[in-house]
Amino acid sequence: MSRPRILFLDAYDSFSNNITSLLTTLLDVDVFVLPIDSPLLDPTSADFEQRLREELSRYVAVVCGPGPGHPDNDADVGLMKHIWRLHDAEDLLPVLGICLGFQSLVASCGGKVRRLQRGLHGMVREILHRPAADYNEETTAGDIFAHVGNFKATLYHSLCGDIGQQAVSEAEWDKARWRALPACPDLLPLAWVEEHRGERDGVERILMAVKHRTRPFWGLQYHPESVCTEKEGNRVIVNWFREAMWWNASRQRVSVPGGDILARDATKPSLLSQLSAAPAEQWWESLHVDAVYQSMTISLPHGVQIPDIVEALGPEESESIILDSANAAASAAARADVRGRYSVIATGLEEALRIEHHTCDDYATVKVGRVGGLLQRISLAPYSGIWGLSDIGVPLQHPRGHHRPDLCFVWVTKSLVVDHTMGVVHIQQLCPRGLEENPWVEKTATRLLSSRIFQGRFPPDGLSPRKETQHVATYQQQPLRTRRLSKSTSIQTPLTRDYESKVELCQEFIAAGESYELCLTDQTKISRPVSDSSAEKSSADGLPMQKRCGSSLSAPPSSWQLFKMLRSRQPAPFASYIRLGEATLVSASPERFLQYDQDGYCSMRPMKGTVRKSEQVSTLAEAERILHIPKEEAENLMIVDLVRHDLHGICGAGNVSVPHLLKVEEYQSVFQMITVVEGQLPKPADGDSESGNAQRYTGLDVLAASLPPGSMTGAPKKRSCEILQQIEQHHERSLYSGVVGYMCATGRGDWSVTIRSLFRWDDEQVPSGGEDGGEGPHEVWRIGAGGAVTILSTPEGEREEMFTKLAGPLRVFADSG
Ligand SMILES: C=C(O[C@@H]1C=C(C(=O)O)C=C[C@H]1O)C(=O)O
Ligand SMILES: NC(=O)CC[C@H](N)C(=O)O
């Protein structure tokens, strides 16, 4: 027997999948999702009424979801307002509105929707409903709070339904609070929050739930699906469904089973299932997946660090992918929970196959090596797109002024994986079958074993000592501002006043109900003489090339040297050094985005809440005191609920949990609050068969469905990105704010958020940075930094946070002048 079906109208919230998961698991129903502006159900088309009626006939009930915006704005609520207009016996069906859906119900019944005195986002409050003793036969009818105990729930709103409550005097309030008020006679209030607004403003009465007097409509202002809403609140949902089913039964309304429906499943189809639509000629045949795995493991001498291994491997390759658990050695000092266990050094990139995609294109390219010939252009038409802003419905500005790839996947067949826990290096390659004689693994092992670092001619001290010695002399602590470091390097940081007014603008959008949290960022631009990249890394004899050449002091440090400086100053679990195509990224990211294993276990680690280390805040206990406050916890909670939504969209109902909520961790220069959210990918019903395999979900499904990272956008993601594009003046964040990581052939993967990083593009060169125009070509480095703005932020606080995050990466330029 098929389960009852519920239709969920999605207003592009970032919590929708949490609601569909809650409904599915709690009520044993199937939930189908229709966007509020679905082109399949267009209110301007002639047969709209008919199509709507047909679609609704398939469901036992409708849930109108939360979302950004205002119920008076048609585009924000779309189909919802047609639901509240249903009236005759044939069309009518039970409906529950949640947050925006609830406000839309209030507005449709003549109530007002006004701004709260101050928005409440990620705030957990006691939901006040009628006390148990007050329930009798009359008051219980249709009251979905009847016999529910006390519970707290999470709020995400700036607006509130106003049915006249503020006008009721204190003396009258006790009686009036459960009665329909004259301003809106059709709605019976069922629950309230009383928010203390300080001496002057007193208590703001905030309507939390209603029931329509004659129609089967209910609404909840709070978020029943939030991870911080207490379980007792689930009984409200169960009661609603019981009332809904009872209403259907009493009207002999039966939903029509089967048939075509316009709404889609609450979870997305797998990426692999899209391949059946792919053209017959398969580009991935050139990946040589028919390969032999060869490997060798050698032990790692104490104190050897990733850059030492890279340098011992020999002269620099023109491209690099190095994922460096740079805090592995310094983990005792960092005391952060994440200790990178593995580091990955990719080699042989010049012959590696890669896939690139530029967001505005409708194709991706497959080619070999950096300048290698184009093998194929893959049309994206048969697929649902490649993971970017455009895939969450946020178009980019045209023209973008460049044709750089926004996505680059490289098929790496030769790599070194360092296991810091076991103290070993695995040298591994996938060798095309028939070419097994390839001696690369042995040759690499021999080269490492005979190098200075493996021969013990290396100081066995945890931190590599020979690093930036030549630069220490120029080290100066300087305040951060636009300045010239030397005659030839200039740094342009965001202007204080500018940034602060952008924070204020974010807060205006939030107060208007357009967003709950906005991760505002800005960029710092560094222009300096082009570094001599041919002198990067070291020569085959193990001596730093620049030392050999004797020209080290005049040449600015190469990107590789910048990386070495950054990783030792800010040892982070997700450091990386990437030189790929035209891009260079030097990162000291502390934030894991997503990790998954071959069994479909996924873990995300959103980070929100940052405090700079200082004399006043130097211990974990002090940081906890500062970070465990409503503002910081709310910031984190909002992203946690958003990340749960992203995971639910792939893992499905009931397969997401939060094992660690709001934990404070220590890093080199900051304390950060993090939460761990876990999910389990569904197993295909007939897992071993070919068709089962085609339906299989992998970690890539989660990655594709979760970009861009919610911690860098704010919530709800789509509207927040639209607003941020505007406030950040369509300035592309570029490599900053994206993700870097790997997925290996067995299905494991690990991705970090690119923050606390520097990056540059080869094509961004200015002819001369010198005032006299005589200093030769300059290259441009960029550093993005920012933080989450909420209604409780202060412009000064946010500006200070942005500069705190900027300081670490920027200092490598300051120190190397
Ligand atoms: C925006 C940045 O960091 C993000 C914002 C954080 C915050 O608001 O506390 C914390 C970590 C990141 O998700 C940055 O580092 O530039
Ligand atoms: N979560 C929501 O649905 C929010 C509704 C509305 N945009 C508000 O801010 O009040």
Automatic annotation (TrEMBL):
It is an enzyme of class 2 (transferase). Coiled coil: none annotated. Residues 555-805 form the Chorismate-utilising enzyme C-terminal domain. The keyword ATP-binding does not apply. One of its GO terms (cellular component) is cytoplasm. Its EC number is 2.6.1.85. Residues 8-240 form the Glutamine amidotransferase domain. One of its GO terms (biological process) is L-tryptophan biosynthetic process. InterPro entries: ADC_synthase, Anth_synth_I-like, Chorismate_C, Class_I_gatase-like, GATASE, TrpG/PapA_dom. GO terms for molecular function: 4-amino-4-deoxychorismate synthase activity. It catalyses: chorismate + L-glutamine = 4-amino-4-deoxychorismate + L-glutamate. The keyword Transferase applies. It holds the Pfam family GATase. Pathway: Cofactor biosynthesis; tetrahydrofolate biosynthesis; 4-aminobenzoate from chorismate: step 1/2. Residues 527-553 are annotated as: Disordered. Keywords: Folate biosynthesis, Glutamine amidotransferase, Transferase. In the C-terminal section; belongs to the anthranilate synthase component I family. This is aminodeoxychorismate synthase. It comes from Bombardia bombarda.
